[in-house]
Design goal:
Blueprint (H helix, E strand, L loop, with lengths): L18 H7 L4 E4 L8 H12 L4 H15 L9 H13 L4 E6 L5 E8 L2 H7 L7 E7 L5 E7 L28 E5 L1
Antiparallel strand pairs: 1-3, 2-3, 4-5, 4-6
InterPro entries: DUF6630
Pfam families: DUF6630
Protein name: DUF6630 domain-containing protein
Length: about 190
């Protein structure tokens, strides 16, 4: 978590029981729902404050705001795709300043992000493009219900289970899904 703290913040008082909540309350991390920003520019405004904490100039914040605006304005994106597009654009805009956007993953539908110094170690630990440790398997049942499994990348893919809605078996006797299975990183 220290990657998200600027040098002067390293003595920051953290609640030992819930470090992430402490960092969210202090504005070191930002929580964004998968469906979109609470208000237009939420991510770029947060990043601008953190860029300032890291001692980078207004030009970096302006580049971030421009990149986020361009990504958010794309009409080609479906619901749920705007936040990842904005995060990638912001991360790219931070690169020339030696900063990066990092993400804490909890296997849910919330993005918890923070600005950090761009180093090999920080990118490997928290970078947006680091490999997922878990995968989400999704089968849409013919009844219309979405069924999901969250499994470690080392686990085998699901080959048995019933629909949470209609109790229909989602796999045939050989373990093949009855409908296409979508696999996404968590």
């Amino acid at each position: 978590m220290a990657f998200f703290l600027e040098t002067a913040e390293r003595g920051f008082p953290l609640d030992g029981d819930d470090v992430v909540d402490s960092l969210l309350r202090a504005g070191v991390l930002l929580s964004v729902d998968w469906s979109g920003e609470e208000h237009l520019g939420q991510i770029s405004q947060f990043v601008a404050r953190r860029v300032e904490a890291f001692g980078r100039g207004h030009a970096v914040a302006d580049a971030v705001a421009s990149a986020a605006r361009d990504a958010a304005g794309s009409d080609d994106l479906a619901r749920g795709e705007h936040v990842p597009a904005i995060l990638r654009a912001v991360d790219d805009a931070l690169a020339p300043a030696g900063l990066a956007l990092g993400e804490l993953r909890f296997g849910d539908d919330t993005y918890r992000v923070g600005v950090m110094r761009r180093t090999d170690e920080s990118i490997r630990s928290w970078g947006l493009d680091r490999p997922a440790s878990e995968l989400i398997y999704i089968i849409d049942c013919p009844c219309g219900a979405m069924n999901m499994w969250l499994l470690s990348v080392s686990d085998s893919r699901p080959d048995e289970g019933e629909c949470n809605s209609c109790a229909r078996n989602l796999f045939d006797p050989t373990g093949t899904p009855i409908a296409p299975m979508i696999v996404e990183p968590a």
